[in-house]
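Run folding on both entries below.
>entry_1
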Amino acid sequence: MVVAAPAFLALLVAPFVLARAFRFATSWRDLRAPSLALDVATVVGLFAGSAVGESLGQYLAFLPWFTWIGLLAVRMLRVRKDEAQISQPAREGPVP
């Protein structure tokens, strides 16, 4: 129980903290609104689902939260791909 409370709090606070950081990063600015929306959906799902049943609240909270994680993962892969293309020198002639 001692570890669960800080981990749960970090789960809820992380999207808000990163949404604030996204405001200052030009290439990530477009993820600010989805981060805030998905975190609000996480909190609403948690409390609304918990009113019906405890485990339903957990499922409704994790669905938007993992959607947010997937959104970040797609962006990170895209940034990595773009950086790899920039760092490779241009080749002349046909590419095998």
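>entry_2
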Amino acid sequence: MRRCRWILRISSSRLCSWNSPAAIPGIRFEFDLTPRRVDLVTEPVDVAIRMGEPPSSNLIARELARLPRYLYASPRYIERFGEPGEPADLMQHECVRLSPAEVNG
């Protein structure tokens, strides 16, 4: 039986998904998958992964990936309300929009 020598605590917003990390001898992963903002200085968290622009801070931020954005609508919705031609048209449509707090976690 391997002994765990380190625990890596990772905080990630609910919008991120995870596959189980590969077994790394001696490391146990603990995930906090809530959208709350964590304080990396005072809380027992080693890494925070968020989507969107980071708030200005003295923390070190690195881009891990660029994710494309998509719009989805049912054929019935498009029949009733038409297809938006440009982003500004979305203001006239019924949309589920995420606030910056929801995106940035």
